[in-house]
Write a structure and sequence with these properties.
Elements (H helix, E strand, L loop, with lengths): L1 H6 L10 H26 L12 H23 L12 H33 L10 H27 L9 E6 L3 H11 L6 E7 L9 E2 L2 E5 L4 H8 L3 E4 L6 H17 L9 E4 L3 H5 L12 E2 L2 H5 L8 H8 L3 E5 L4 H11 L5 E6 L2 H14 L5 E5 L5 H11 L3 E4 L6 H6 L1 H21 L4 E7 L8 H19 L3 E7 L1 E3 L5 H10 L4 E3 L5 E2 L1 E3 H14 L5 E4 L5 E2 H11 L10 E3 L19 E3 L5 E4 L6 H11 L8 H11 L21
Parallel strand pairs: 1-2, 1-5, 2-4, 5-6, 8-9, 8-11, 9-10, 11-12, 12-13, 13-18, 14-17, 15-20
Antiparallel strand pairs: 3-4, 6-7, 16-19, 18-22, 21-22
Helix pairs in contact: 2-3, 2-5, 3-4, 4-5, 7-8, 11-19, 12-19, 14-16, 16-17, 17-22, 18-20
C-alpha cells in the first residue's frame, strides 16, 4: 500500500503530467476535507458548538484534519483511484472507492483511539471531549458520496455534452436486451462524438418488458419492429443477439426486410440494418467481442442462415498432418480456403499450384504470415501442361492432392469451348494420371452441380472429368474421389460480389431471370466439407454436399439491397437481362433419392452411379482430344452429348414454366 503511495511521486506514466496528477490529489483533498467538515456539521445539527459548549471547528475539525486527510489520501491513492479516467467511471471504480474509504475509516478510528489512550495516559483525560464516534461513520458516508458523485458528474457531463457527429445523429433501435445490448449502450454513451440516439430496445423476454437497460426503454417484443420503426422514425436497426440461432436470425431478418419494404417511397432516408458478430465467430477468433468496434453490416451468410459444419478433426488430421499436400487452383476462392484450412492441420509441406502468378503470390504471402510454422512451396503452372505437372509432383512427392483448378464461368466456356475441354477435362486427366504414376495416396477432385444433367459446356466437361476419375480409380492405387457442390458465396466472379459492386455504384442490379434459382454455401463451409469427404472417401466415390434449399436470385438481390440500407426499385433498380448461353434456371443437386447413399456425416452423401468401362473412357479421350483447340461450339456440343447422354444443350427460348426434378 505505502509503496504505491510513494510511487505516485516517481516518473509519471506516459500521457499523465505532474500538473494533472497534483491537481487530482488536491481535488481529492478538498472533497475529503469537505466530507470531514460536513460530518461534524451534521452530527452537531449545524451548530458551531457541541452540546458541551465546545467550538468543534477549533477543537475537533482542525486538530484531526491532518490525520484524517493523510490516512484517506494514502488509502485511496494506494488503490490507484487517481489513475482511473473519470470519463469511464464504472462499477469497478465504485468498488475500489468503497474499499479505500473503508480502509481509511478503520485506520482513522484506530488512530483516534490510540490518540485518546495516549492523552489519558499522559494527562489523565481524553483529548477530544464531546466527539462522538458516529462522526467517523458520517465522514465515511459523505466521502463516498462526494468523491463518487464528483466522478459520476464528470462522466455524465462528458456523455451529455458531446459534440454531434458530422453526419448527424442516427435514431437507433437495438434488437435484443441482453449483455451485448448493455455493452453497446455503454460504448455508445462513451463515444467522443454523438453518433446515435437510442430510441429503445426490442426483446421477446417477458421479464424485460417495460424495463430500462442503460437508460433506454425496452419497447416490446421483436414482432413490433415494423410498428416501432414507423412510429419512432428509426434510421438504423442493430441486431445485438450474438447467441441467436439461425432460425431466430432468419425471423429477425425477415422482419427487417418487411420493415424496409413497407417504407414509403417518399421517405428521405431508408433504414440501415447492422449486427454484432455471432457467438460462433467470436469463439472462432473471427471477431473480438460484441461492442461498437465489432458492429458489421448484415452479410449474405446471415441471409442464408447456414448451420455450422461439424468436422471430424481426428479423421481430417490423420489425412493431412505431417503429409505433403498439393492444392491446384490454390489462388482461387475454394483453393485458397482449402489451403487456409489445411494449414491448421500442419502438413509437412503445402504445395500451392496455380497458373495465375498474382493469385499464387497473394495466397503464399498470406499463408506464410499466418502460418509461419508450415512449409510452403508456390508453383506456377498449368494443369494441362504434363511436363510442368510432372516436374512439380516429381519434386514434391505429395501424398494428397486437392484438384480445385477449373474454368468455372458458364458463358465464357460457351464462347471458348475448346479451352473448356482442354482445361476441365484434359487438365484433370493429366493431373490424375501423373498423380497415380507418382504414388499419390489421395486425390480429391472438386466438381459442380452443373455436371448434373448439364446444359452447358462447362458442366459437361466437368461431368466428363468425373467419368474419367471414377474409371481411373478402378485400376490405380490412388484413392480417387470427387466432391460435387453448388455455388459458393463470395467466390471470385460469383453473383454476390457482382451485386454488391452494382449496389455500391447506385445500380442497376442485373438479374438474368426472375425465376432463376441456385444452391449456395459459404466458402469455409465448402472447404471443411471437402476435407471431411476426403477423409471419408473410398476409391471412385462421388460425394454430394448438402446445399440446403435453392435460393431465388431475385430474392437474394433484393435482400442485399435492403441489407445495404436501400430499397429495391426505389433507391436501386433491378434489371432483367435474360439467360446467358449455357445457363439453367434451376440447378439440380440433392442428397436424397434412390441413387444417393448417406454417410456418417449428415451433410455428405455418396452418389451411386455406374462406372464407365475402360473402352468407353478411352473412346471419350480419343474423340475429345482433337477438340482442345476447337472454336466451333456446335461441334463441341455434339461430341459432349455423345459421352454425356443426359446433357440437354442450352436453348435461347428455355421456358421457366416448371422446375426439373432433383435427379442425379
Amino acid at each position: 500500500m505505502f509503496y504505491r503511495f510513494f510511487s505516485l511521486f516517481e516518473q509519471p506514466a506516459v500521457g499523465v503530467s505532474w500538473a494533472r496528477r497534483i491537481a487530482l490529489i488536491a481535488f481529492y483533498a478538498v472533497l475529503m476535507t469537505a466530507a470531514w467538515a460536513l460530518a461534524l456539521a451534521v452530527r452537531f445539527d449545524f451548530q458551531t458548538v457541541t452540546p458541551d459548549g465546545i467550538a468543534w471547528i477549533t477543537s475537533h475539525f482542525l486538530p484531526l484534519l491532518p490525520v484524517v486527510l493523510t490516512i484517506k489520501l494514502i488509502a485511496l491513492l494506494s488503490l490507484s483511484l487517481h489513475r482511473g479516467s473519470w470519463r469511464y467511471v464504472a462499477m469497478a471504480d465504485v468498488v475500489r472507492l468503497l474499499a479505500g474509504t473503508q480502509i481509511a475509516l478503520a485506520l482513522i478510528v484506530a488512530a483516534f483511539y490510540a490518540w485518546q489512550t495516549l492523552a489519558v495516559w499522559r494527562t489523565g483525560h481524553a483529548a477530544f471531549i464531546g466527539l462522538p464516534e458516529t462522526v467517523f461513520v458520517l465522514d465515511w458516508l459523505f466521502g463516498v458520496l462526494l468523491i463518487g458523485g464528483a466522478r459520476m458528474v464528470a462522466r455524465l457531463s462528458h456523455e451529455e455534452s458531446r459534440p454531434v457527429a458530422q453526419g448527424g445523429v442516427v435514431r437507433l433501435l437495438i434488437i435484443g436486451a441482453g449483455d451485448a445490448a448493455e455493452t453497446l449502450l455503454r460504448e455508445i454513451a462513451r463515444m467522443p462524438e454523438q453518433h446515435y440516439h437510442v430510441v429503445g430496445l426490442l426483446d421477446d423476454s417477458p421479464a424485460k418488458q417495460n424495463q430500462r437497460i442503460g437508460g433506454a426503454p425496452v419497447l416490446g417484443p421483436i414482432s413490433m419492429l415494423p410498428r416501432v420503426c414507423s412510429g419512432e422514425q428509426v434510421g438504423e436497426i442493430l441486431i445485438a443477439l450474438p447467441s441467436a440461432t439461425n432460425e431466430q436470425m432468419q425471423r429477425i431478418i425477415s422482419l427487417c426486410r418487411a420493415t424496409q419494404m413497407a417504407q414509403d417511397a417518399r421517405a428521405v432516408t431508408p433504414i440501415r440494418f447492422r449486427t454484432v458478430p455471432s457467438l460462433q465467430d467470436i469463439l472462432a477468433g473471427k471477431a473480438v467481442g460484441a461492442g461498437v468496434h465489432a458492429i458489421r453490416d448484415i452479410s449474405v451468410n446471415d441471409l442464408l442462415g447456414r448451420d455450422a459444419v461439424e468436422t471430424d478433426l481426428a479423421a481430417v488430421g490423420a489425412l493431412l498432418h505431417g503429409k505433403v499436400v498439393m492444392v491446384t487452383g490454390a489462388g482461387g476462392s475454394i483453393g485458397s480456403e482449402l489451403c487456409r484450412t489445411i494449414c491448421r492441420f500442419e502438413p509437412s509441406l503445402l504445395v500451392l499450384f496455380d497458373k495465375g502468378e498474382n493469385a499464387v503470390f497473394e495466397i503464399d504471402r498470406e499463408l506464410r504470415r499466418t502460418y509461419p510454422q508450415v512449409k510452403m512451396q508456390a508453383a506456377i503452372g498449368d494443369i494441362a501442361d504434363a511436363v510442368r505437372v510432372e516436374q512439380v509432383l516429381g519434386e514434391t512427392q505429395p501424398a494428397v492432392v486437392f484438384h480445385a483448378a477449373a474454368h468455372k464461368h458458364v458463358p465464357l466456356a460457351e464462347l471458348n469451348p475448346g479451352e473448356a475441354i482442354r482445361n476441365n477435362f484434359f487438365g484433370t486427366k493429366t493431373l490424375a494420371d501423373i498423380s497415380a504414376a507418382y504414388g499419390v495416396k489421395h486425390f480429391v477432385m472438386i466438381s459442380t452441380d452443373k455436371a448434373v444433367n448439364p446444359t452447358s459446356i462447362m458442366g459437361a466437361t466437368k461431368r466428363c472429368a468425373e467419368i474419367y476419375i471414377q474409371a481411373l480409380a478402378r485400376r490405380a492405387q490412388t484413392n480417387f474421389i470427387t466432391v460435387r457442390f453448388g455455388n459458393v458465396l463470395g467466390s471470385n466472379g460469383s453473383v454476390v460480389p457482382i451485386f454488391k459492386e452494382q449496389i455500391a455504384k447506385g445500380g442497376p442490379v442485373t438479374v438474368t431471370h426472375p425465376e432463376m434459382r441456385r444452391y449456395f454455401m459459404t466458402i469455409p463451409e465448402a472447404s471443411q466439407l471437402v476435407l471431411q469427404a476426403a477423409a471419408l472417401g473410398q476409391r471412385g466415390e462421388i460425394f454430394v454436399l448438402d446445399m440446403g434449399q435453392p435460393v431465388r436470385i431475385l430474392d437474394l438481390a433484393r435482400d442485399l439491397i435492403i441489407m445495404s440500407g436501400l430499397r429495391p426499385e426505389i433507391d436501386i433498380p433491378i434489371v432483367f437481362t435474360g439467360l446467358r448461353p449455357g445457363e439453367k434456371l434451376y440447378e439440380e443437386l440433392s442428397i436424397t433419392g434412390e441413387n444417393m447413399q448417406p454417410t456418417r456425416h449428415t451433410k455428405i452423401s455418396v452418389w451411386k452411379s455406374t462406372v464407365a468401362t475402360t473402352a468407353y473412357v478411352q473412346k471419350m479421350v480419343d474423340e475429345l482430344e482433337p477438340l482442345q483447340h476447337c472454336t466451333e461450339r456446335a461441334r463441341v456440343l455434339k461430341m459432349l452429348c455423345t459421352f454425356v447422354p443426359e446433357m440437354k444443350p442450352w436453348q435461347p427460348d428455355a421456358s421457366p414454366a416448371s422446375a426439373p426434378q432433383n435427379v442425379q
